[in-house]
Specification:
Spore Coat Polysaccharide Biosynthesis Protein SpsA, Chain A, 12 strands, 16% strand, globular, glycosyltransferase activity, transferase, Glycosyl transferase family 2
């Protein structure tokens, strides 16, 4: 079938695949350089900041922490204790029990002396109805806590109810099983306070992986490096994404996503665009794109900020099954968001959002796994037709592998020179070892999950979310 593959056709395919690889590598290098300069500037500027003034001031902007919970009985009491231990002054915590089938609500009622109360809800966004109602604590120590029990509608629906209930200016949307550091809110609110000639509509921070760390009473006591190789690879992946990626996109005002694990939003803008989309599995990315498009259409100067400090720790998948399910969902969320907002793409009306951010995500996030698998198919055809120049092929594979390893090692060095979270003896060496194994042990499964996500999006519409079984950070 392929025995007489024309040389001209081979040259065209070579140009496409090698050209894409060169463009991808070049973009990573450029983003890393920008991130490095921005991180240095951030650390210099913030070395003089007195965060105590922000957290102790009675006029600090009001913030609601909104945390959806579904079948979180295992850790819900500890998780809420963590959220209530924040050092910020003017905030409350809204836990949305999204139709849990376990005893999540009962544990909260017992642990925090909750009683049902009459509570006025401003239903600006349609959501699933309440089930047992709104609860407040009879203990003054927990006066900041509000617990809402509603029928199950999914994470986005729960967050929308939180937006309806919140009476504060800003909302911090967080996964209830995440560990929020005590100074997280005052660091996240800082860009909103500093901005003068442009409106900050949202801010995100660094997410770190808590597997194997020692956590007690909602506090991070000790950082350990996990033995699980899947988790180790994800640590490195998160470091690359947050240290050498998002800092650069923040500088370019090109962020299209804030991690659903923890993000701070201007509630007014979030409500004006209609809240979270309940019909997508990528609600965290979709709302940012929609808020940005709205600001562009209103012709208001704005930005989405990013804080490079480690502010939130979360549990990562520790099995390939759950890992693939998570990445499958991320792929489907990206496809849905880019498709829904395709009018933005390559559209100068939307400035850098349309001409820089959207094209990058489209080519290097949306299409990258498809092009990679097509490249593997093309290489197989070249082998079958005896058209492989093995010297160049082997050299290309070695260069690609070494670039991935080198990029990871640069990330590790950046971590060591900046926030240096992995301080125990031998952790640096373990990270470097992971840099050599992660492309082999993790990347093939990421590629498979992305391809399965594409297949499921187009041919298996019944899949909505995906399994993410938690074991509990305190027990890792």
């Amino acid at each position: 079938m392929f025995q007489n593959l024309p040389q001209q056709l081979i040259e065209i395919f070579d140009f496409i695949f090698f050209g894409f690889a060169f463009a991808a590598i070049s973009s990573y290098i450029i983003l890393a350089i920008i991130s490095a300069f921005e991180t240095v500037n951030y650390m210099k500027k913030n070395s003089f900041v007195n965060y105590t003034e922000i957290l102790s001031s009675s006029i600090s902007p009001s913030i609601s922490i909104i945390a959806p919970a579904y079948n979180e009985s295992l850790n819900i009491v500890e998780n809420v204790r963590s959220l209530l231990s924040n050092h910020y002054v003017n905030y409350d915590v809204i836990i949305i029990n999204d139709g849990s089938k376990d005893d999540t609500l009962e544990k909260l009622i017992t642990a925090y002396n909750l009683v049902k109360v009459d509570y006025l809800i401003n239903n600006q966004i349609a959501t699933k109805p309440l089930r047992k109602g709104v609860f407040k604590s009879t203990n003054p120590a927990f006066e900041k806590l509000i617990v809402v029990d509603k029928e199950n509608g999914g994470k986005a629906d729960a967050l929308n109810l939180g937006l309806n209930i919140s009476t504060n200016k800003y909302v911090a949307c967080i996964d209830v099983d995440c560990l929020l550091l005590e100074d997280a809110l005052q660091k996240m609110i800082k860009p909103f306070l500093e901005s003068t000639n442009e409106k900050v509509i949202a801010a995100g921070g660094v997410i770190r992986i808590a597997n194997s760390c020692k956590i007690q009473d909602g506090k991070l006591l000790d950082i350990n490096f996990p033995k699980n190789r899947i988790v180790r690879g994800q640590i490195l992946e998160y470091l690359r994404a947050f240290l050498l990626g998002r800092m650069a996109w923040s500088k370019l005002n090109g962020l299209l996503v804030i991690s659903g694990a923890f993000g701070l939003f201007d509630k007014k803008i979030a409500l004006e665009v209609g809240g979270y989309d309940t019909k997508t599995v990528g609600e965290d990315m979709e709302i940012i794109v929609r808020m940005r498009a709205y600001m562009e259409e209103q012709k208001v100067k704005y930005r989405v900020a990013y804080i490079p400090d480690p502010l939130c720790w979360t549990e990562a998948p520790d099995s390939y099954k759950i890992f693939i399910s998570q990445r499958n969902r991320w792929t489907r969320g990206t496809i849905e968001t880019l498709k829904k907002h395709r009018k933005i793409g390559f559209n100068r009306k939307y400035n850098s959002l349309g001409t820089l951010s959207y094209p990058y995500w489209f080519f290097f996030e949306r299409l990258a796994p498809i092009i990679e698998i097509l490249g593997l198919v093309y290489f197989t055809i070249l082998i079958v037709t005896n058209n492989v120049v093995w010297t160049y092929a082997i050299l290309f594979m070695i260069v690609a592998y070494l670039f991935t390893v080198l990029f990871s090692i640069i990330t590790i060095i950046a971590e060591e020179l900046t926030y240096h979270q992995y301080t125990k003896k031998g952790m640096g060496l373990q990270l470097i070892k992971t840099a050599f194994t992660e492309p082999i042990l993790n990347h093939p499964f990421i590629l498979y999950a992305a391809l399965k996500g594409n297949f499921d999006y187009y041919f298996n519409k019944s899949i909505k979310w995906g399994e993410m079984t938690r074991k509990g950070m305190s027990s890792n």
